[in-house]
């Protein structure tokens, strides 16, 4: 059985770095809207299963498919195949500091379209790993009222300064700070022992202060709501969306 059975495939087109760009989007559910941005290596079965928990909780969920395979179980072979293509793609920022990923504009457009369709106070956004910081970039737009940052891991650590970088331009970081000061909370989740996250949650704490809800998980792991799924993490996400989107 295809894990995406029951989901409706659509498409969304918006500007990315000056070019009209179209990506598939999978949709399911009713109620307040949430955009879940998948991790490396693609729209895996684990991401879909997590999204189904959000649907069951009473949300309309969109799964944009930005790269890699869709519907397959996670595999390191897929990571090896997809990673080189991501590294040359103009849609994503991989190494540069103080830069917002170019695909952020596309995601903001998708969130606005979803909000116009389902209404409510705004939409939720969740990024993870490679896309962890994307929810912050979406928060720049007033449409996103419930950003969740799971194990943010870009720009890639390895060169000085990158372990603390939030994948945001100075202007977008200031917009995030202003929105947080106006009452928009941010949820961030990581395994405390995960080296890929670096000190980004410390940076986020400094940026938004008391608006940041920080969840540090015990044990060894990386993918907090998918491959090394923590019920503590999932419950924190469900509670956050219920509070912010009701």
UniProtKB/TrEMBL annotation:
Any idea which UniProt keywords this protein has?
Hydrolase
Which molecular function term from Gene Ontology is one that the record holds? hydrolase activity
Q: Could you tell me which Gene3D superfamilies the record lists for this protein?
A: alpha/beta hydrolase (3.40.50.1820)
State the protein's name. Dienelactone hydrolase
Its domain of life? Bacteria
Record carries keyword Hydrolase: yes
The family database entries (InterPro entries) matched by this protein are listed as: AB_hydrolase_fold (IPR029058), Dienelactn_hydro (IPR002925)
**Pfam families linked:** DLH (PF01738)
Keyword Hydrolase in the entry? The reply is yes
Q: Where is the Dienelactone hydrolase domain?
A: 30-148
The coiled-coil segments of this chain are: none
């Amino acid at each position: 059985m295809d894990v995406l059975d029951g989901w409706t495939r659509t498409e969304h087109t918006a500007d990315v770095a000056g070019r009209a760009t179209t990506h598939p989007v999978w949709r399911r559910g009713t109620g307040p809207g949430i955009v879940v941005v998948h991790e490396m290596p693609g729209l895996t079965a684990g991401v879909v299963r997590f999204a189904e928990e959000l649907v069951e909780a009473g949300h309309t969920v969109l799964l944009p498919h930005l790269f890699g395979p869709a519907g397959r179980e996670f595999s390191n072979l897929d990571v090896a195949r997809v990673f080189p293509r991501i590294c040359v793609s103009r849609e994503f920022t991989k190494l540069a500091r103080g830069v917002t990923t170019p695909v952020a504009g596309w995601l903001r457009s998708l969130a606005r379209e979803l909000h116009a369709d389902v209404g409510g106070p705004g939409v939720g956004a969740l990024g993870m790993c490679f896309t962890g910081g994307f929810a912050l970039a979406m928060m720049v737009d007033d449409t996103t009222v419930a950003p969740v940052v799971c194990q943010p891991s870009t720009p890639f650590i390895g060169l000085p300064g990158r372990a603390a970088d939030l994948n945001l331009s100075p202007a977008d970081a200031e917009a995030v700070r202003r929105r947080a000061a106006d009452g928009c909370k941010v949820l961030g989740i990581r395994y405390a022992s995960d080296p890929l996250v670096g000190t980004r949650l410390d940076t986020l704490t400094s940026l938004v202060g008391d608006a940041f809800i920080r969840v540090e998980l015990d044990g060894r792991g990386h993918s907090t709501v998918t491959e090394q799924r923590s019920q503590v993490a999932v419950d924190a996400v469900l509670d956050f969306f219920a509070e912010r989107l009701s």
